[in-house]
Every structure is written in structure tokens, then in C-alpha cells.
Amino acid sequence: MGHDLYEIIHRRRDVRGEFTGEPVPDDTLDRILTAAHAAPSVGLSQPWDFVVVRDRRLRETFHAHVREEREVFAATLDAEAAARFARIRIDGVLESTLSVVVTYDPERGGPGVLGRHAIADAGLYSSCLAIQNLWLAATAERLGVGWVSFYREDFLRGLLGIPAGIRPVAWLCLGPVTHLHDVPDLERHGWRSRRSLEMARHEDRWDGRR
Predict the structure, then answer these.
(1) Could you list the mean pLDDT of each consecutive 10-residue stretch along the chain, which spans 210 residues?
(2) Exposure class string for 157-196: b at 16+ Cβ within 10 A, else e
(3) How many Cβ atoms from other residues are within 10 Å of residue 92's Cβ?
(4) 127/37 Cα distance (integer angstroms)
(5) Gyration radius of the chain over CA positions
(6) 8 A C-beta contact, residue 97 and residue 19
(7) In angstroms, rounded to a whole number, what is the distance separating the alpha carbons of residues 75 and 58?
(8) How far apart are CA 36 and CA 38, in angstroms?
(9) pTM to 2 decimals?
């Protein structure tokens, strides 16, 4: 079983163009969300919520916003980077079966969240752990997940009626896929190369490598 977990971790991909749009069984979605909800959280605050988005009009409205933000980012690039970026897909909002928006409520578990007094972002990290659980569970179910980050939080909050003060942390596209690539998209398109573990590992003290 341990080897299966390692295989899932390394097989996981950020999916863009491989969604089929086929249905996700309700019991499968329940297992995935249950895994996400089982994530550890600071002070057992469980600061996340999960908004399952199926409505086509909502997704089309969000997709239009994503396209606008793509153009905003593209305008900041030099010609060479812009040419590389033009070849990269950034979302599968309309092609995926559904989406899950994961939020963070900083008031959950308050006023005194055990373990958060010195690190204010510990609650936000907890929501990210729920996202990772969701992603690995979906991969184990042979589904794909794509994290869309080209959006403004206020826009998404208004679109989905998320209360003020609650942060939408991630829009995750979810659904069956034709396949998962062996090499992540950004590496395949020459955007960035992966750092080796040796470059990231330090012993006892930071050794000056960046």
C-alpha cells in the first residue's frame, strides 16, 4: 500500500487539456471530498469549505474572467516568454465535468485557534493540505484535477456568493481524463525545469543555495 501512495504522488498532474467531460459518480465525489475533509488542520479548526460547481453559466462566466486575467499576465512578459506562454493552456474549466472551489475561513475555530497565535497563515496552510488530499484522492480514483489560479478573489467571491472575509483559495477542475502526462505541462512547454532534491535539501542550516 505504501508503494501505491508514492506512485500516486508522482503520477499526479495539474490537468488542463485532457478532460473528457464524462460524469463523476456521486459516491466517487463523496470519497474524494471526504478525503479532503480528513486533512489535518491547525487547532482542529477545519477552516475549509468546498463549493461544488456544476452550473454551466457560472463556469462560462468564470472562464471569461480567466481569459481576461490571462491577457493581463501575458502583457507583463517579454516577447520570448509571451511566445512560450501562448502555447500553454491554463485551465479546463469548461471541459472538466465539474469544479470544486476550496475556501479558507480565518474565523473558524476562533477566537483562539490553538497553534496559530505565532503563525497567522497556519490556517491557510491547513486549507492547502485539504487541497492536496483532494488531489491525491482524485488521482487514486483515476480522475484528473487542474488548479486554476488566474482569477481575482473578489470576482470569485461575488460570483459564488462567498461571504466577505472568506478567501477562495483554489478553483479546482475535476473529472475523468484521457490520460495523465508523464512530464508536467510547464516542463513539456519549456516554461521551467524542475529543481533536483539535492538543490532543495539543506542540513541543519541554510547553506546559501537558491
Answers:
(1) 82 93 98 97 87 98 96 94 88 96 90 79 92 97 96 97 96 96 75 85 84
(2) bebbebeeebbbbbbbbbbbbeebbeeebeeeeeeeeeee
(3) 25
(4) 9
(5) 18
(6) yes
(7) 26
(8) 5
(9) 0.91
